[in-house]
Amino acid sequence: MVILIVDDEPDIIEGVITGVDLEGLGFTEVMTARSGEQAMELMRRKPADVLLTDIEMSDMNGLTLLSWVREHDFDTVTIFCTAYPEFNYAKKAVELQAFDYYLKPIRYEELTEKLRAAVRKVREVRSERQHKLYGDYWLESQPDNRADFWNRALMRYAGEDGGGGWLVGEAQKRRLPYQEKDFFTLLVFDLYRENKLKEWNRGLLDTAFENVLSELFALPGCSIETIASAGPGAYQMVLFQPGRRTVDREALRESCRRFIGFCNRHMGISADCYFCSDTPFDGIGAIIYKANRIFRDDVTGCNQIYDIFPYKMKDGSYAVPYLSARLEKMLLDGQWQQAEQMVCAGLQDAAASERITRSGLLAIQQDLMQVVHAVLQARGVPAHTLFCGETFDRMSAEAVGTVDQMAQFVGYLIRETMRSVGGKDGRPEGEAAIEKVRQYIDGHLSEPLSRSVLAGLVFMNPDYFAKLFKEKTGQPLTAYIKRRRIEWAKELLAQTALPVSQVAQQVGYDNLSYFSSVFHDQTGLSPGEYRRQRKGK
């Protein structure tokens, strides 16, 4: 601690140094000055903790010196020591927040007590400054503090319902402003077919979803405490409702619908939303536990919204009656389509029974793989030649997500087996599937015709179906669709008076310029030229 003694009389300075045990009071450094200017210079280099100064000095009085100290925001505790008991001096000292005012002649015992009090004041000021510093830091770190608290809570209660004791105690320890009377809302978002987002950086993807969720769920009377990952393709959110404010459940559902719509339209994926609103603070742990059980075991939903509180857990007792020797015989006999239909019908029955869980889907997948391996072994086909690629790995992992995803995996698995093993007569089935798709294309030329939609008609993987289509027809699927659309456009141009823009829409082109470009590439003429040419004949 540093003390600065200022007086234009050297004897006064020397008397204080020798008459007061400054070291015993806690001062580790003593600075002295014989003028206000000299005192300022010393303060610029090292601000003093305590300033003991005369008022009347030759160049500058002590009041002016203290004014300068205050202007520079030094936390210096000041004691005036003067021989002039003038009221104006005392008044000005009070205005400048001087700590004490002492009249000469100096009595060292009294001065010692005043300096001791000044030292205590310095320590109080330091303590207040430190508390403010830590308090500001604590306030600045509150968002991180809250997020860390909830991330720990979400992980802690994901696997077990440990009661609310930990929540309450941890919140108090972290000085979080939660009371037992406060309400909270938990939301869980489960994404399907997230592989479509694999080109995204994981960090950027998380940030994108956090931004969307933050915007959609900015509900009145609520604050978003955290948005956290709940594993691959899943997010959890906690809303804080201080003072038992109830959330608008219809507004909550509308936000869920908008999030599902965003996932469908902009991300090309599906999503389920699970929520439980207006939960007391000490009950949120049980809800976190139940929510995790539900969304990890529910396999029937897709683009659905569920209320966690009344939700009844499935018992998972569904038995799979059809993955047996009968299925193996059907596959060996080349009855591929019948086999697909039988398995997929069984899956739909399982979903309708509401007794199928994720573990049940996993059992179905394992039994199906066992049957397929038996068929491959009977025909002498090594299994690794079929099921070791990226497509198989992805679809196999996704299959236990929902019943619909399992149905797609079943179609892919059986079709891949068909391609390698062959049908009853040794010829792989495929012509019937392609003919079915051709008929669908001809009847829906005005609609979007994606590979996934067309492959889904015959329960095939989109990549595999596109490859099979080219093998069987000699042209890519997209080229075939384009050719059929232009052929129909030619008929409409020749046989009707529809405007070219309507013709374009009739054959699946919303953009007239693009339609004209494609038409010209296929025919060498613009749509208008083609119509005039045909009308002229």
Automatic annotation (TrEMBL):
Modified residues (4-aspartylphosphate): D54
Residue ranges occupied by any Response regulatory domain in the UniProt entry: 2-119
Keyword tRNA-binding recorded: no
Keywords: DNA-binding, Phosphoprotein, Transcription, Transcription regulation
Organism domain of life: Bacteria
Functional summary from the UniProt entry: May play the central regulatory role in sporulation. It may be an element of the effector pathway responsible for the activation of sporulation genes in response to nutritional stress. Spo0A may act in concert with spo0H (a sigma factor) to control the expression of some genes that are critical to the sporulation process.
Name of the protein described by the UniProt record: Stage 0 sporulation protein A homolog
Originating organism: Candidatus Faecivivens stercoravium
